[in-house]
Amino acid sequence: MLRFRCISELWYLDQEKDVETVRDLLEGYENSFWTCSIAKAGYSGTAIVSRVKPLSVKYGLGIADHDTEGRVVTAEFDSYYLLCVYVPNSGDGLKRLELEKSKPVILTGDLNCAHQEIDIYNPACIISLNWQPNPQGNKRSAGFTMEERESFEKNFLSQGFVDTFRIQHPNVVGYTYWGYRHGGRKTNRGWRLDYFLVSGSIADSVHDSYILPDVNGSDHCPIGLVIKC
């Protein structure tokens, strides 16, 4: 039984009503926590709905520009912190959340970066997230630039986080995002932009990390994580 569900890039139009509607659809999830953009309606919201009541909940990064955009919800449980994020730039700023000092961290959401070539369709001649031609190839494609990939490495993997899907499935091609234009989903021209990252201290407790590519309703698909208690 799933203990919690995290939703990123949740476009609230009426934040109270929309989140409660989602919670009502999920039987048994009595606890809901969300934040949304106050700078632009219907943009970049995040939410956590949980069967278990957390010890505490915090919102934002402590960075004024980003904290008006509803990009981070952090819930503290007995044994770990859970972060639901919608990251604009491969993790810059998340290093301010120094949670690992007290408990392991589970971080999930749209990180807007395909870290390795296996994480993107046809990386040698990729065009862009909107499937527009890019004469410079993958080097300047937003979401797959060297700067973004190096930032992902620096801000996450070099800080002790583990990419659970890639550890569990080192050679599997799996995507979580397909642009609506040009039928990207039908032809599986995708990107893996959504992740479950965990602190290295609990990496051995990961039983599975998976992608559900056949679930529709968005240009992204759900991902899941199973941790052994």
UniProtKB/TrEMBL annotation:
The record marks 220 as: Interaction with DNA substrate. Transmembrane segments: none annotated. GO terms for cellular component: chloroplast nucleoid; nucleus. Mg(2+) binds at residues 110, 112, 219-220. The record marks 194 as: Important for catalytic activity. One of its GO terms (biological process) is base-excision repair. One of its GO terms (molecular function) is double-stranded DNA 3'-5' DNA exonuclease activity. Residues 6-220 form the Endonuclease/exonuclease/phosphatase domain. The record marks 112 as: Transition state stabilizer. It comes from the Eukaryota. InterPro entries: AP_endonuc_1, AP_endonuclease_F1_CS, Endo/exonu/phosph_ase_sf, Endo/exonuclease/phosphatase. Its cofactor is Mg(2+); Mn(2+). Keywords: DNA damage, DNA repair, Hydrolase, Magnesium, Manganese, Metal-binding. Probably binds two magnesium or manganese ions per subunit. The active site is at residues 86, 110, 220. Belongs to the DNA repair enzymes AP/ExoA family. This is Endonuclease/exonuclease/phosphatase domain-containing protein.
